[in-house]
Design a protein that fits this description.
Layout: E1 5-12, H1 20-29, E2 35-38, H2 40-45, H3 47-55, E3 59-62, H4 75-89, E4 93-94, H5 103-109, E5 114-115, E6 120-121, H6 134-141, E7 146-151, H7 157-173, E8 176-178
Parallel strand pairs: 1-2, 1-7, 1-8, 2-3, 4-5, 6-7
Length: 185
């Protein structure tokens, strides 16, 4: 009997009206679930897309109200930004933008939130012309119980449109079962 191969698909920086509905449709097509780490400001502007994420059975995480770098932002401002995003998104999951968070910010925020990093950053936001090995690298770094980061942003959309469906096909063929992140924490 084969042990289940769980994987955690995550999408950062949305929702955006161009990318997020496309990602949601592809997740539906393959009957996959993901966790969306949204920016509060985008969630306010596109609450209809947030409703679709939840309605389709995906999980929400907080990526801050705005996409702030913790190493370059005063602690009080950074923490208030995280709190504002959490209030809008109604979630206890928090992913620091750029994975840059100061020790004091981390100590303060971990009391209120489950801080989630990742195991593999897909770099889907890079120029599509530089992505010739994207799928190969993604497959190489996909292992059971890993958290994989994509972005549902306009910048990442060309790469996603080229490689996300073949990756989902590969996940199915390799018997991976995507899970919602809150089940891992």
């Amino acid at each position: 009997m084969n042990a289940e191969k769980h994987i955690y698909l995550t999408f950062d920086d949305g929702p955006t009206p161009e990318a997020t509905p496309w990602v949601l449709a592809l997740l539906d097509k393959y009957q996959l679930k993901a966790t969306f780490f949204c920016l509060g400001i985008n969630a306010q502007q596109h609450s209809d897309i947030i409703e679709q994420i939840v309605k389709r059975g995906h999980a929400l995480g907080n990526h801050g109200y705005k996409h702030l770098n913790g190493w370059k932002t005063k602690n009080k401002v950074y923490i208030a930004n995280a709190d504002k995003g959490a209030t809008i998104l109604k979630t206890k999951l928090f992913r620091p933008p750029y994975a840059k968070i100061s020790p004091l910010q981390w100590l303060s925020l971990r009391k209120k939130y489950n801080i989630v990093f990742w195991d593999y950053l897909s770099k889907d936001y890079l120029n599509i012309d530089k992505q010739s090995h994207f799928l190969t690298r993604l497959q190489k770094h996909t292992r059971p119980n890993r958290i994989i980061v994509f972005h549902d942003s306009n910048k990442a959309l060309p790469t996603l449109q080229k490689y996300l469906e073949p990756y989902f096909e590969w996940l199915k063929n390799e018997n991976y079962t995507p899970q919602l992140l809150h089940t891992r924490l």
